[in-house]
Amino acid sequence: MQEELNALADKLLAAKKTEAAAKARRIEIEEEIIELTGKTLDKQKTTKTDEYAITVGWKMNYRTDWELFDNLQVADSIAPVKLKRELDVKKYNELLDNQPEIFRAVSKCVIATPGKPSVSIKRRNG
Predict the structure, then answer these.
(1) Is residue 46 classed as helix, strand or coil in its secondary structure?
(2) Domain residue spans in the chain?
(3) How far lies 63's CA from each of 10, 27, 40, 87, 93, in Å?
(4) How far is CA 9 from CA 91, 114, 116, 126, in A?
(5) What is the pLDDT along the chain (126 residues), one digit of tens a residue?
(6) Which of 34, 38, 103, 109 could cysteine-pair with 95, CB 3.0–4.6 Å?
(7) Which residues neighbour 9 within 8 Å (Cβ) at sequence distance 6 or greater?
């Protein structure tokens, strides 16, 4: 089993190296396409050739200084703010140990699905 795991670890490391090179090349090509088609912030632009319809999108990322925003005292009815409800997984898991009856009730409202597994490899010698 140890030899098989070592061989698989070598293959995985080689695949990751190939993947990283392919990703870097893909990004270079995307940048070349953007230079030819033009930059359009916060919208999409489609350029057609005789063979392809190439759509370039460039989204803006927004962050808010909430402390500064809260000091503005903008009325809730016009404030450009959305609140997102999110399960506090740590508190949810604590309910299992500390309040099992509440946990049973809450767990009927929670859907848990497995995420993508991860594998980490570190070479031990050298």
Answers:
(1) strand
(2) 2-61
(3) 41, 25, 20, 22, 30
(4) 37, 24, 18, 15
(5) 999 999 999 999 999 999 999 999 999 999 999 999 988 888 888 999 999 999 999 888 889 999 999 999 888 889 999 988 999 999 999 999 999 999 999 999 999 999 988 888 788 875
(6) 103
(7) 121
Report the run of H or E that residue 45 belongs to, with start and end.
strand 43-48
Query: Using CA atoms, how far apart are residues 119 and 78, in angstroms rounded to an integer?
Result: 47
CB 23 within 8 A of CB 1: no
Q: Taking each helix axis from N to C terminus, what angle separates 89-98 and 100-107, rounded to the nearest 10 degrees?
A: 130
Length in residues, the chain: 126
pTM: 0.65
